[in-house]
Amino acid sequence: MGTLRQQWRALARSLRIWSAVLSLVAGLWWDGKDWTYPGGVSEQRRQVRQQRRARWLTNELISLGSAFIKLGQLLSARPDVLPAGYVEELAHLQDRVPAFPFVTVQALLEQELGERCAEIIDLEEQPLGSASLAQVHRASLRSGRQVVFKIQRPGLERLFRLDLEVMQQVAAVMQRHPRWGEGRDWVSIAQECRRVLLRELDFRLEAEHAARFRQQFFDDAGIRIPSVIWELSTRRVLCLDFLPGIKITDRSALVEAGIDPAAVAEKGAASYLQQLVRFGFFHADPHPGNLAVAADGALIYYDFGMMGQISQRLRSRLGRMVRAAAARDASALVVELQGAGVIAAGIDPGPVRRLVRVMLTEALTPPFSANILEKLSGDLYDLVYGQPFRLPSELIFVMRALSTFEGVGRSLDPGFSLVSIARPYLLPLMTASGNGPNDFLGELGRQAGDLGSRALGIPRRLDDSLARIEQGDLQVQIRAGETDRLLRRLALAQQVSGQSFLLGGLAVAAALLATGPIPALVAVPLVLAAPVVLSWLKLQGRLRRDAHLEKLPGTGGGGN
User: Fold this and answer.
1) Which of 122, 285, 303, 379 is catalytic?
2) Which residues contact 70 (CB under 8 A, 6 or more apart)?
3) Per the CB 3.0–4.6 Å rule, which of 136, 374, 386, 467 could disulfide with 128?
4) Tell me: the pLDDT tens digits for 409-427?
C-alpha cells in the first residue's frame, strides 16, 4: 500500500511540474504574438510583459519547492540561455518557506547525532530562519558555547531525485524543439544542475566551505566567519558558532550603535575584492540576509552553501583583461575575452569591440556612476543572449556578487562606488601573477615576440596578396548594414507587388467565372489564391517588422 501511495505521489508531482512547464510555454507563445498586444506592439510593451512573465516564473519556482528554487538560482547565472529580464528576476530569488514542526527538528537531531545530542542543553523552539533546504535553530551546549544548528528538511533527497528526473525529461523535450534547442544544450544544463543540487544536500561540503572561508580572514579582526563544530555536524546537520549582529542594511540601527555605515560599506568592498583577487574563493550570495555587523563594527558573513571559485587560469586571464581595460584597449580586451571562451571563434568581433569600447568609457570615466556594475551586468547579459557567446559561470557569479554588494554599499552610503575604491586591489592583477619584475619582463618579451613574428610575416603576406591580385583571386568583402537592409526591403516589396498582381488577376478570373455559364468554376481561382494570400500576409508582416526595427535606436534607423 505504501509503495502504491508513493507512486501516486510521484505521478501527481510529475503532473504538477509538467503543468507549470506547459503554462510557461503557452505564456511565451502568447507573448510572442503581435496581435495579443492591445493598441499595437512596441519594444517597451514587450519588456513589460517579459518582466511580468519572469516574475510569474519566479513565483512558480518558489511554489514548486526546493529543487526548483535552486534551479532558478543556477539559471540566473546563465544569461547566454535566458533573456536579461529573466536573469535579473531570478537573481533576486530568495526562498522563504514555512518552518517544519519542532518535534521533527528534535527527531532529526537525535537521528543524526545519536548520543552526541546530550551536548545540547537548550534548543530554541522558534527558528532563526527557514528556507527550502533547511531551517536554523539557536542552541546552547554544555560547555556554554552558543551555536546554531542548520537542519535539513525531512524527505528532501527523495523529492530532489524525483524533481531532477522530471527536469531531465523537460530538458530532453526542449532540446528537440527547433527554436528553443538551437545553440543551447539543455540536457547538459540539466545534468549540471543535478550534480550541483545533489552536492548541496551534503552539509559537510558547506562545513568545508565555511572553514576555508574563515581561514582566509583568520588574521583580519574586521571580518568574522562562524567556526564549525565538527563533532556536531553531519551530512544533514551543520553546527556553527552563533555570531549575533545588526542586519547590514539596517542603517538607522548601525548609526544608533555608533557604527559608521560608510566605513562598513568600504570594509565589505575591501573584503570582497580580497576574496576575488587574493584568494580566488568568494561568497557568491552576499544578499543582506547573509551579512551582518557586530557591535564593534566587524563584518559578519553567514551561509556558505553557495560559494564561487576562480581558477588560477582564469585569474591569470583576468589580469590581462584588467591591464587591457586600464589602457582602454578594446581590441586587446576582446582578444582576451575570446581566449577565455567568452566569445566564440570565427565571429565578427566588430560589434563586440564597439560595445566593449562604450562599456570601458562608462566604467573608467570619472565621476563614477553609483550603479555602474549593475549597468555593465545588464549590457553584458544583453550582449550574450541569443548570440554565439558563453560566459563562464565563474564570471557570472563574480559579476552578480559584485553588483549585489554594490547595492548593499549604496544602501549604507549613497556616495558609495565599488569601482572608485577597487584600484589598489586590482594592482596585483595588473602585475600578472604578482611576481614583480620577472612578470613584467616576461610580458615585455611576449609582446616583443608577437611583434617580431608579425613583422617577419608581413613580406610573405604581401607576396600572397600580390599573387592573388595577379591571378584575379583577391576578394574584397564590404559590410554595409544599411545597404543590405534597403536591398532586403526592396526585394520584399518586389515580391509583395508581384503577388498583388497575381491576386488581382485571380480576382478578375473569379469574377468572370462567377458570371459565366458554370459558376461553380469560381472555386478554382479561389483555391489557387489561398496559398498566395498566406504568402502575401507573411511578406507584409516581415515588411512591418523591418520598418519597426529601422525606427529603433541603435539599429541604423532614424531613431534619435
Assistant:
1) 285
2) 132, 133, 193, 196, 197, 200
3) 136
4) 888 888 777 766 666 666 6
**Integer Cα distance of 269 and 249 in angstroms:** 14
Cell of 193: 544542475
296 is catalytic: no
**CA dist., res. 393 & res. 74, Å (int):** 9
Beta strands 299-301 and 223-224: pairing type? parallel
Grid cell, residue 325, equals 581595460
The HSE-up count of residue 477 (CA atoms within 13 Å, CB side) is: 3
Q: What's the pLDDT score for residue 333? A: 78
* Residue whose C-alpha cell is 549604507: 412
DSSP 153-213: PTTHHHHHHHHHHHHHHHHHHHHHSTTTSTT--HHHHHHHHHHHHHHHT-HHHHHHHHHHH
CB-CB contact of 383 with 83 (8 Å):
no
The total number of residues written for the chain in this structure = 560
Classify 224 as helix, strand or coil: strand
Grid look-up 612578470 returns 439
Q: How far lies 350's CA from each of 26, 33, 331, 356, 454, in Å?
A: 37, 32, 9, 10, 21
Is the omega angle on the peptide bond into residue 367 within 30 degrees of 0, that is, cis? yes
Q: Which of 248, 266, 263 is nearest to 417 (CA)?
A: 266
The label of the residue with cell 610575416 reads: 457
What phi and psi, each to the nearest 5 degrees, are found at residue 336? -65, -40
531: which residues sit within 8 A by CB, 6+ positions away?
A: none
Q: Which residues contact 449 (CB under 8 A, 6 or more apart)?
A: none
- What is the enclosing helix (H) or strand (E) of 42? none
SS3 label, residue 91? helix
Cα 120 to the chain's mean position, in Å?
41
Among candidate residues 498, 493, 486, 484, the one with its CA nearest the CA of residue 540: 493
Which residues touch 207 (CB under 8 Å, ≥6 apart)? 228, 230, 233, 238
pTM score, two decimals?
Answer: 0.64
Q: What is the mean pLDDT of residues 60-76?
A: 80
Please write the tens of the pLDDT for every residue from 91-118.
777 656 778 899 999 999 999 999 999 9
CA distances from 320 to 107, 325, 335, 336 (A): 54, 9, 10, 7
